[in-house]
Amino acid sequence: MSSSTEEESTAEGTDLIYCGIDWAEHTHDVALVDDTGQLLAKRHITDDAPGYKILLDLLTEYRDSEESPIPVAIETSRGLLVAVLRTGKRKVFAINPMAAARYRDRHAVSRKKSDPGDALVLANVLRTDMHAHRPLPQDSELARAVAVLARAQQDAVWNRQQIANQLRSLLREYYPAALAAVEPWKKGLCRSEAHELLRLAPTPTRGARLTRAQLQAALKRAGRQRGIEAEAERLRSVLRAEWAHQLPLVEDALGKQMLALLVQLEAASKAVNNLEEAVAEVFPQHPDADIILSFPGLGVQLGARVLAEIGDDRRRFADARGLKAYAGASPITRASGKKTNVTRRWVKNDRLNHVGFLWAFSAISASPGAKAHYRRRRDDHGDWLAAAQRNLFNRMLGQLYHCLQHHRLFDEDTAFPAALARAA
């Protein structure tokens, strides 16, 4: 009887141990506590393979196994340490540093802080409130790869736009003719034609001296194949028009500054193109790609961003409401006494929320039902543009959740039956 009781207590004890890791750049502090809050073990490990082995051996020593892994709390969701911990069925909780700071106040009113103490706090977070925190999703390897590429492409687009804004601001100071020349082009300063033009004529004085033959050659080098003569004539007339000028030496100095920014913009544009090709190669291989791409307004790049943020772990969101709140698409109600305020969410996944507005904007043109829904929000409910787009994103996000759960493609008649009937 005594041996069987000991085995039962050991099996039960496996679920009553919690691990907290205070993450740092070079070293980490680890703490293990039991269900009563007693500190069982603590270690100081390095951020390398030997340190990870010490951590895994420590977890194994306290009955960590594939069947009953010890949950771990850490203040980051990225890095090699997290990748090592996520192997198998172990639940890893990425605790927000601000939330961890609030928990720290429960243990010490003096607000003292130490790395071993923070590891103990994180372990106690799981011991007391594990049900209130969400573990990292168990996404597939392919979904994680798509997430890396889609987020990198999104960052590259934002970086390119930031450099383009800096270049535009600089050109306004001394070269408004260049801005007028690229204004009719889609993507403006980000086009290869604009890069060839600015490289050929970095100052307005040199731009006014360009001949038709030089402009035509620049357009051909940029890859343009149609309307070259007419476009060269338009550029020549714009560059030779009457514009204000800086002093000659100042103009030359600004031209050199512009060329330095142009090099950065060309590198950023190349990075965007390379990442777009990588996303287009990997994303269609995912089983959910066909469902996501069946929705109006979602192409390969936006669809990959959606998959990157929601993942393919079907247990991640209990229902569509959880996904909508995570994306910031659903409104939030704040009530205090007799006052009630309904407003948009400020705490959300910013990347997914950004995709939502692009998705809704494209869906208005691609789907009659989405367009009718948008017009109804604008005309009947009096929503502003952003509010109407957010409402449409909220609606389509719920439809996406349903389609992914039931492995169905988007159907226009099922998605917007009332809107289509009203439009007809």
Number of helices in the DSSP assignment? 20
Strand content: 5-15%
SSE order, as H and E? HEEEHEHEHHHHHHHHHHHHEEHHHHH
Instruction: Using the CA coordinates, give the radius of gyration.
Output: 28 Å
Largest sheet: 5 strands, mixed
Estimated helix fraction = 55-70%
Tally the structural domains: 3
What coarse outline follows from CA principal-axis ratios?
globular
Question: What is the rounded distance between the termini?
Answer: 77 Å
Number of strands: 7
pLDDT < 50 runs, ≥5 residues: 1-14
Which sequence of strands runs across the widest sheet? Answer: 3-2-1-4-5
What structural category arises from helix and sheet content? alpha/beta
Average of per-residue pLDDT values: 89
Verbal overview:
The structure is a single chain. With 424 residues, this protein is α/β, with parallel strands linked by helices. It has three domains: 2-136, 2-Layer Sandwich (Nucleotidyltransferase, domain 5), CATH 3.30.420.10; 145-281; 289-423, no CATH class. 60% of the residues lie in helices and 9% in strands. The chain has helices at residues 2-14, 49-61, 80-85, 97-107, 115-129, 141-174, 176-182, 192-200, 204-208, 212-221, 228-239, 248-282, 289-293, 300-310, 320-327, 350-366, 368-379, 385-406, 412-415, 417-423; strands at residues 17-22, 27-34, 39-46, 72-74, 92-94, 332-336, 339-343. Strands 3-2-1-4-5 form a five-stranded mixed sheet. The chain has a two-stranded antiparallel ribbon with strand order 6-7.
